[in-house]
Amino acid sequence: MQIMREAIVKYNNIKAGILTEENSGKYVFVYDEMYVQTYPKQFSTFKLPVTTRSYRGKRLFPFFDGPIT
Question: How many domains does the chain have?
Answer without folding.
Answer: 1
